[in-house]
Amino acid sequence: MIDALSSLGWIEENAEEEGLPVSEEESLKEQLNLFIAQNKQLTKEIINLKEENENFKAVTDSFQREKEQTLQLSKENNDTIDNLLQKTVQKDELIKDLESKIDFLNETQVNDSDIGLSIQNKENEIETLKSQLEDKNQKAL
């Protein structure tokens, strides 16, 4: 029993060392008072630890809710990003298609311009030949 009390911080006082005779009953009362004081102290510590534990649980629950909200928001943002990316790809394809059409129209316009110039040259040539033909016809008459 003395070893158990010593491990709790109680030191046995020897009656001979103090010079006062201590009865066994008084010794037991002192031990009981020490146990009661230690019990009160340990009970307070347990209560404090329980309160601390409850506070930690509340903080943990709060963090868990924040984590779930953040994950949900992240999922929504990822969905939005995926949708925007898909729209961007579609618009890029549309832009490439329109650029191809513009290039084709520009080439066609150049060809039309070349054909128009060629037609004009041929008309001028026809006019020149008509004029030469008329001159020959007048000389023949």
Task: Describe the secondary structure blueprint for this structure.
Blueprint: H1 2-7, H2 15-18, H3 24-140
Coiled coil: 25-139
Keywords: Coiled coil
Overall description:
Residues 25-139 form a coiled coil. The chain has helices at 2-7, 15-18, 24-140. The radius of gyration is 54 Å and the shape is rod-shaped. With 141 residues, it is mainly α. The N and C termini lie far apart (159 Å). The chain is 90% helix and 0% strand. The chain has one domain (2-140).
Helix-strand topology string: HHH
The number of strands is: 0
Structural class: mainly alpha
> Number of helix segments?
3
Mean pLDDT: 87
Query: Gyration radius, to the nearest Å?
Result: 54 Å
Helix content: over 70%
User: For the report, how would you describe the main beta sheet?
Assistant: none
Question: What is this structure, in a nutshell?
Answer:
With 141 residues, the chain is mostly helical.
Annotation keywords:
single chain, about 140 residues, mainly alpha, 3 helices
